[in-house]
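Data deposition worksheet. Section B asks for the primary sequence of the deposited chain exactly as it was used as input, without tags or linkers unless they were present during the calculation. Section C holds the resulting structure in C-alpha cell form. Section D is free text for depositor observations; keep each observation to a single sentence. Incomplete worksheets are returned to the depositor.
Section A, Depositor: J.P.
Section B:
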Amino acid sequence: MHLLERSVRPIASSEPTPTLTQPSTFSYHFTRVSRNRKTGPIPVTTTSANSCPPDCGLRRNGCYAEGGPLAIHWRAVSQGVRGATFEELLHEIGTLRRHALWRHNQAGDLTPSAPGVIDAELLLRLARANRGRRGFTYTHYPPTSENRTAIQRANHLGFTVNLSAETLAQADSYAELGIAPVVVLLSAGTTRPIRTPAGRQVVVCPASLGNTDCLNCGICQQRDRVAIMGFPAHGVGARKVEAVLFAGSPS
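Section C:
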C-alpha cells in the first residue's frame, strides 16, 4: 500500500476553523490500495472534514465516516497529521494506470471556494488529471446553478460526480436536473430495488449487500446510468440516518 502523507503541525482544537479562502487549510490523503472491504483494493482518497458543506443533513448526524475505523483516519487528515496538498494529489492521480478505477473522497467532499460553493477551478483540474482513468465521487453540495455547472463539466470530462440525495423525493428532483447520476440513502436492511415517488428505479448498492465490491462493480462510475443507486443506512449512526430519511419523506 502506498500512502501519500506529509507531517505538518496538527490543528489544535482551541484554534479557530481556517477560512475557506486559504487552499492550504485543506488536506488530501491518497491511498493507492484500499483495504476497505466494500471498495476493494482500488485507490481511494480522503479530504479533510472542512471540505464538507455546512448544511449537509448527515453532518454530526449519522455520517458513516464519523464513526468506526475510518473516523480515526479522517480525523488525522482533518487535523493535518496526514495528507498533502492538492497539487500533490493531482500528481498521484496522474500516476495511476490507464482505465484504473478509483474513488475520490471515501470521506470528505469536493473542495469549496466558499461555504456551500464548489471550487469549480479545482474540480476542473481534478477532472483533467483523471483523463484516461475511471475516477468517481459523491457530493452533498446542493446543485445550485453555480454548482451544477461545475458538476456537469466534470462529468462531461469523464470524472463522475454523483449527486447525493438524502431522501427519495430529493433523488427525484436531482434526477430531473439531468446533469449527473444520483445516489440516495435507504432504510437499514433494504435489500431489494425500490421506486422513488416519481417511479424511478433505485438499485441497492451490491457492495452494501456483500455481493461484490467497487472494483468488480463500478456502477457508481457510470455517468450515463438511469438507475439511482441506493445505500442502506449502516454503522453506529444508522438510526440517525434513518431519521433524516424519514423526516424528508412525504406523510
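Section D:
The radius of gyration is 17 Å.
The chain has a mean pLDDT of 87.
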